[in-house]
Design a protein that fits this description.
Blueprint (H helix, E strand, L loop, with lengths): L3 H14 L4 E6 L8 H8 L3 E6 L7 H6 L3 E3 L10 H12 L9 H5 L18 E2 L2 E2 L2 H4 L3 H19 L2
Helix pairs in contact: 2-4
């Protein structure tokens, strides 16, 4: 278990170097799960301090006194919070407008509207006996848009009813 005094000192130092109020997030399997909605909320936060525990975590008094929020990346336990912190950072950073070059890329991803993404294809036209759907090769942008709208509904219903 990580001791409270050194963690408190580290958090206070990080807060002092921040130009705006910072939110302290503890990566823990006991927190609510990280969602796209939460990542969007965090992307709009000016500063975040990510607290990563080891093995059994951190002193409970730190949770009560210094942690603003606990977040889990899933129903499993890992040795420490470093990998969950990197996953949270990846989810949040890609939502910053200049990160992807085109913010629409993030807005069209799986889970951005509570639906999974549509299938995507590359060359060759046929691979292992499976071909790219005819509609995607049709050149009819209206039909392609309709297909791309229906596929997330179908996929979400099949995989996450």
């Amino acid at each position: 278990i990580m001791m409270a005094p050194p963690l408190q000192a580290a958090i206070e130092e990080a807060k002092q170097t921040s130009s705006a109020p910072a939110k302290v997030i503890y990566l823990s399997p006991q927190g609510p799960p990280l969602t796209h909605k939460k990542a969007v909320e965090l992307a709009n936060s000016p500063h975040l301090i990510l607290l990563c525990g080891r093995y059994e975590g951190i002193d409970e008094r730190m949770l009560q006194s210094s942690v603003d929020e606990e977040i889990s990346i899933g129903e499993f336990v890992v040795y420490g919070g470093e990998l969950p912190a990197m996953m949270l950072m990846d989810a949040v950073l890609r939502l910053i407008p200049s990160a992807l070059g085109d913010i629409q890329s993030a807005e069209q991803d799986s889970c951005s509207d509570d639906l999974l993404d549509c299938p995507h294809y590359t060359k060759p036209l046929e691979f292992q006996g499976v071909t790219v759907p005819d509609v995607l090769r049709s050149g009819n942008h209206g039909l392609i848009a309709e297909w791309r709208l229906k596929q997330p509904l179908r996929r979400t219903l099949e995989r996450r009813p």
